[in-house]
Model the fold of this input.
Amino acid sequence: MNKAVRGSLLDIEHLEAKDILGLLHLARRMNPLKSRPLLRGKRVLLLFYEPSTRTRTSFEMAAKSLGAMTTLVLSTGSSIEKGESLLDTGYALRAVGADVIVIRHPHAGAPRLMAAHLDIPVINAGDGMHEHPTQALLDAYTLLRHKKNLKGLQIAIVGDIYHSRVARSFIHLLSKFDARITLCGPPELLPDVATSLAPGVHITRTLEEAVRGTDAVMLLRVQKERLAGMKIRLQDYVAKYQMTTGRLKLANRDALLMHPGPIIRGLELTSEVADCPQSVIIEEVHNGVPVRMAVLARALGKTS
Done:
């Protein structure tokens, strides 16, 4: 296979810290409310094999804010449903004029496979249990709106880390800035091997220990159907790992409460926590647009 075209964004793990900071700096120059025709005449193909609200919408808004044309291709109602292969779909989209493909796929590695066979940039919008790079970038962007820098921050990530591509990308990103990362959850959703994801990762099974003295806490959605097949019961998870106002008080006074969404009030957090002054959950969604504007502009070499 060939190397991905310059401008592709396939993961965070293989990005250097300087490249991450460059994207975040570029994002600061992007204003979704003030259109910049950097990508006028370009065609952005949104290829989504999985349902999405935040990621898909913000990529579309980002592309249009830069003057690009967008086309959405879903796996349902397309040739994909008839059994067309991933690469044949990619070849077809390139043939009709795609300048960049944004892809979300249930299988890890699908964006990289496509990028190795196409002569246009490919952007990973989430692939299986592997990575979700633009989510990590917007989370870092959100942190930097409130903190001086990322270096040395103490971050807790709580919930279903095992299945979370969001957690993987965020852990890779934070580790590049020597952050202190504490993962918290039951063994069924957080195996001990998770410490091998990146340097500086620590595991605790106690939420109070994870939260104490942190600069930010990221909560992850827990799917009830996954708990159903495990030893841990839903009520036990809520009792041990739900973020409450009392538990959040153990963090630093200026700690941020983060969540990639969608949130489930009453499960991983209470309504009071979701709406508290420390919550930046809605801000994360907002920040997804300028960050994805930067990613698209970089993909097509329009960064000035």
User: Anything to note?
Assistant: Residues 131 and 213 are 28 Å apart (CA to CA). The two ends are 32 Å apart (CA to CA).
